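User: Can you help me understand a structure? I only have the sequence.
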Amino acid sequence: MINLKNKGVNIQATQASVVAGIIMIAFLFFGEGILKLFGVDISSFAVAGAIVIFLIGLEMILNIPFFREDTSASSGTIVPLAFPLIAGAGTLTTILTLKAEFSQVDILIGIVINVILVFIVLRSADWIERKIGPGGASVLRKVFGIILLAIAVKIFKAHLFGIT
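Assistant: Let's start by predicting it. Here is the structure, written out as tokens:
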């Protein structure tokens, strides 16, 4: 997020949070149907998402862009912030797998709480950046890049090989 701001991207916390929330809620109710419509099973969706998350993690650690920048728009609020960073394949796969154990109402409450927390963090981005400074931001970026890589590997293992 700080990296996006440093690239001149105008991040709108309210818009990103609302769009991510809408994506998550829509996927809660229609996700399985959408995947079935395209003939995609949840495991295939999860593996594809794991690959994207893995590449984003590599970008964060190596500082080498894998994804082409969209130079036609100065706003990165929807892509890549709301989707796939906030409401990405990992989140959407988690929502589908939670449906096996929890009611839709419970998952919906969790989504709303998540969106509120994301909004607070996005609104606090400038304050966080000032407090940690450029060096701290660089370290934090690399740490979270490694965490993203680990999440990607876990999703990949769980859905490709059935290992948790």
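Now, to help you interpret it: The longest helix spans residues 125-161. The mean pLDDT is 85. Let me know which part you'd like to focus on.
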